[in-house]
Amino acid sequence: MLSRYWYAHHVMASAEAAARQRLVVALERALPPLNTTVPVNLNCAIATPVISLAHVQQLGRHRPRERWALAHASNYGDRVTVDVHGNPTNHLLLVVLHETVYSAASAVDYFQTYHERDEDQASYHAIITRSGEIFYTVPAHKRAYGAGNSAFQGEQVQTNLRIAASVNNFAYHISLETPLDGQNANLSHSGYTEAQYRSLAWLVSRTQVPWQRITTHAAVDLGGERADPRSFDWQRFAQYWQPYHRLQQHYCAMLANRQLPARESNAS
Ligand SMILES: [Zn+2]
């Protein structure tokens, strides 16, 4: 016979499971994970602060406007698992930030134009307009041509003998639309809008990339020509990124917990 203690415990456990399920659904809605097919080093084991359903739903209300503006297939390629020399590629995902210099519309125009020559082919995965709207131009699982001759802490992949090695194979390229006073080669301009920082924080968090693997085109460029994104305010970005990061960490931890029983049974 089942005791009422068992019954009380059972009811509490199922109520807890239902609450957890509601939280996972809300987390997925607020910050849908972006699948780039490139691995990310998730630190789910770290204990995350308790987060309420109301808090998640509140953050979820700031979801940016998104739309597709797919680039022409000549301007991007596949992410390869073996480089041009036959070595396996095993880098972790890297977020590379850029700016458009000219309008977002002109960048989309360029990416949607067929380019025959390797040196003319270019693209980002996403562009964030002045109003914070996100234009997705290359699918996340494809290799956008955002940075030519480039490396991140020595990491680079060569996919074509005629083209210098770059970070493109493991990068997710995001570009911010430049303000009007930056449509030139000056060293700085008036910067990006709050809406852009907010949307950027949301999009970067969707990739699940940790802070130390968020970089800029200027930092990875080996040609010494790229300075973008100019006038980028890291502190402002960090302020918007933190809450989303906590959300993402919590989601990650909840998924890890949910998978625990299955892992235990696999091991036995
Ligand atoms: Zn760039």
Describe what this molecule looks like in 3D.
It comes from Parathermosynechococcus lividus PCC 6715. It catalyses: Hydrolyzes the link between N-acetylmuramoyl residues and L-amino acid residues in certain cell-wall glycopeptides. Keywords: Cell wall biogenesis/degradation, Hydrolase. The chain has 268 residues and is an alpha/beta fold. It has a domain at 36-41 and 65-243: Lysozyme-like, CATH 3.40.80.10. The protein has six helices and eight strands; from the N terminus they run ααβββαββββαβαα. The strands form two sheets. It has a six-stranded mixed sheet with strand order 1-5-4-7-3-8. α4 runs parallel beside α6. The radius of gyration is 21 Å and the shape is globular. Residues 98, 217, 226, 228 line the site of zinc ion.
Descriptive tags:
268 residues; alpha/beta; Lysozyme-like; six-stranded mixed beta sheet; 6 helices; binds zinc ion
